[in-house]
Amino acid sequence: MRRLTAVSWIALPLAGALVLSGCSSAKDTSDELQIVANPQAARPAVSPAVSVKPAGQVLPGGAVSALAVDAKTSTLVVALSEPPSLRLYDLNALASAPMNMPLYGKAEKLTVTPGRVEIAEPAQGVVQRLSLPDRKLTETKTGGQPASSIAYGADRLVAMGPAKDIQVLPAAGPARTIGGQLYSADDVVDTGTGVVVLDRLRTAVFSLDVAAGKVNEGLRAGDGAANAVADSYGRVLVTDARAGALIAFSASPLIMRQRYPVPGAPYGIAYDAKRSLAWVTLTERNEVVGFDVRGGEPVEKYRFPTVRQPDSVGVDESSGRVLVGSAAGEGTQVIQP
């Protein structure tokens, strides 16, 4: 796959793009990355009532806490907040009733590798693995509050939220922990060229050296880093919910490549590698926008009205369909661009 090497157009000021090597205390006011005395993680903006009919089809259901798509098995996985559960839809037969699977607790993050979904349930100190198409759940107790989990070769990497570290869970043998510099380990992203950790509390991204067991340099990710996803070009794309921006970082080395203004409180993000489209939800506007990210700056290709409180988004790369989940309980939206 092609990789961008030139520094791309940057639309917003770069005052916050500082390399960090400070200590791990959130109270250290000498930390150049910390932008307020008492940092708070970015949250989605509260959405207004829907004023435009949502595009496409809306599947009824409760409040969606996360969603993901496994294109390999044409499965849409929707995590519901109450009761904590999964709904599994066949994307080739959406009129059919979904399969319901109970969870121990609310799923905050779903991450897909083909034929496998990682489920983080922080309140229960558990990550689960859903295998597809057999629909088998396997649990791993991590303790603490796991915020996200991904497959990493034969291992798993688990971002441990307020524990400020990453757990490396091997297929066999004891787990090990990688920490340092983080205020909160909220997500971990494997770009194929490097691993990056998202720290919402510090509103920053950090390079993770898994083999050496080290958290390396960090960079500010706007004023309110919310969610992150890898693209096809060795980069991590991050939504800045507070300043309204889509930010791109190369992973190896960790360098800010783009910072593009996106008004409307961008929050959820998903990536379609087949079409080089980043889909971003705007919770302040009840919209989802598709950006072509192949060039020197994102180019808007699509914009659709959504269900209220569109905190979650996924994409089916086989068809290009976009899936949007309503955290307000207004269903799961299916859009064919």
Folded structure, characterized:
With 337 residues, the protein is mainly beta. It has one domain (45-335): 7 Propeller (Methylamine Dehydrogenase, Chain H), CATH 2.130.10.10. It contains no helices and 29 strands. It has strands at residues 19-20, 57-59, 64-70, 75-80, 85-90, 99-102, 109-113, 116-121, 126-131, 136-141, 148-152, 155-159, 165-169, 176-179, 187-190, 195-199, 204-209, 214-220, 225-230, 235-240, 245-251, 254-261, 266-272, 277-282, 287-292, 299-305, 310-315, 322-326, 332-335. It has a five-stranded antiparallel β-sheet, with no helix packed on it. A hairpin with a 4-residue loop joins strand 17 (204-209) and strand 18. The two termini are 24 Å apart.
